[in-house]
Amino acid sequence: MSVNWRRVRTVVTLSIGVIVVAGLVLGAYVLLVDEPGNDEDVDSAGGTQWERYEVRGRTLTIYYAGPTCEDSRTTASVEEQADEVVVTLQTVVNSGRCDDRQVRHRVTARIDRPLGQRKVYDGACLEAELSKKECLRTERRTRAE
């Protein structure tokens, strides 16, 4: 029985090609998607401080700065009192895809009754034990106002 070396060489060459392509795809996945040591999303420590808000009816739109890697899982919790509203943001970031740049983000929160004359405070700021004066936030005004 004779061996067809041309066929053996073709099969070996194709097998090596498939292995190389699979290695390249796996390597690209590891570099771009699954960076070592960054397998899990990381919750920001204590909460995300924010800057300004807009109010429309019973909806507050909260504006804050965050890293470019921030995903869309920022949530706002609201605690309402007769004379104040405290909004605390919790932001989940994927630490594997971050850089030092800060970008503007916004998130909305519903309140049970119209804001009226109540003051709005940043809950993360209060948790950091800063004064209420430092944590009082101002309403963002549009140019038309």
Describe the protein in words:
The protein has 145 residues and is an alpha+beta fold. The chain has two domains: 1-34; 42-139, no CATH class. It has helices at residues 5-32, 123-127, 132-135; strands spanning 42-43, 52-56, 59-67, 75-80, 84-90, 92-93, 102-110, 119-122, 136-139. The strands form two sheets. The protein has a seven-stranded mixed β-sheet with strand order 4-5-8-9-2-3-7. Mean pLDDT is 82; it is low at 34-41.
- The sequence of SSEs as H and E is HEEEEEEEEHHE
Which geometry do the CA atoms define? rod-shaped
- Rounded to the nearest angstrom, the distance between the terminal CA atoms is 93 Å
* Mean pLDDT over the full residue set: 82
Low-confidence stretches: 34-41
Question: What fraction strand?
Answer: 25-35%
Counting DSSP H or I runs of 4 or more residues, the number of helices is 3
Roughly how much helix do the residues carry, as a percent range?
25-40%
Topology:
Blueprint: H1 5-32, E1 42-43, E2 52-56, E3 59-67, E4 75-80, E5 84-90, E6 92-93, E7 102-110, E8 119-122, H2 123-127, H3 132-135, E9 136-139
Parallel strand pairs: 2-9, 5-8
Antiparallel strand pairs: 1-6, 2-3, 3-7, 4-5, 8-9
Question: What is this structure, in a nutshell?
Answer:
With 145 residues, the protein is an alpha+beta fold.
